[in-house]
Amino acid sequence: MMLDLKRLENELMAWLGESRVRILDAMNTPLHVDVKSGRNDLVTNVDKANQRFLTNKILAAYPDARIEGEEGTAEKVHDLAGTVFFLDPIDGTMNFVKQHANFAVMIGVYENGAPRFGAILDVMRNEVLTGGPTVAPKRNGRRLPLPKDHELKDGLMGASGPLLIHNKLNVQVINEASSGTRITGSAGIEFKAIIEGQQIGYISYLQPWDVAAGMAIGAHFGLQVTRPDGKAINMLEPGFVVAALPSAYRDIRKLIVVD
Ligand code: 2AM
Ligand code: CA
Ligand code: CA
Ligand code: CA
């Protein structure tokens, strides 16, 4: 079955609009915060409630689709056959808890492993980016200018804090070669900055639902999203991710050290 992307775009805009209202509402009552794998890895009642909310919306509209979401209410996905929705109900949970800003909701829709559509909601800025390989990127339903390709030295680079602190993949040298480093603590906000032309790349260690939406939207303008050795992302596994516009991507690949 081929997805009707116009219908999907309208549905995602509506569902994310409702999600946003629910999240803002929940922020008026005390959060329940739980620690997952360690003290930097949190989940809240709002992450879980939004995962449930969006899962119900998706399955009501697409009963045959499968959902790979971070706060797993559905069965884990072990293959990419058919329609798979990658769902991150709150991306940047630490920011959500500590900053009440700089967090996103992300949905990436794939068919038989191929990206078809993505949506990134920046909740506090009330901005939704949508798009896909065959759908021009939009912000709140309005066409965006496509980001300009720049060499690494001429653009800002995003990075994950831990990777930079521990200099994984030689990221300190890579980022030093750029115009400057930005660290937001949300993969969604980093991809949004690339799509909006504010930065040229991002290096992190990510889960499939962190990458799915940004990779789908970025495919429209040649955004390179790969493992550090240039291999394709396996959407069933976490791993290091290099995302960059083509010229910067080439510069990064020359400097990267795969350990
Ligand atoms: P999350 O908030 O949805 O977990 C910075 O922490 C970025 O990396 C966020 O986008 C975060 O997504 C993502 N991330 C992926 N795996 C993580 C982990 N184990 N701990 C913290 N953040 C993680
Ligand atoms: Ca998490
Ligand atoms: Ca995430
Ligand atoms: Ca999350």
TrEMBL record:
Keywords from the named record: Hydrolase, Magnesium, Metal-binding
SUPFAM superfamilies: Carbohydrate phosphatase
Pfam family, one: Inositol_P
InterPro entries in UniProt: Inositol_monoP_metal-BS, Inositol_monophosphatase-like
Name of the featured protein: Inositol monophosphatase family protein
Lineage of the organism: Bacteria, Bacillati, Bacillota, Bacilli, Lactobacillales
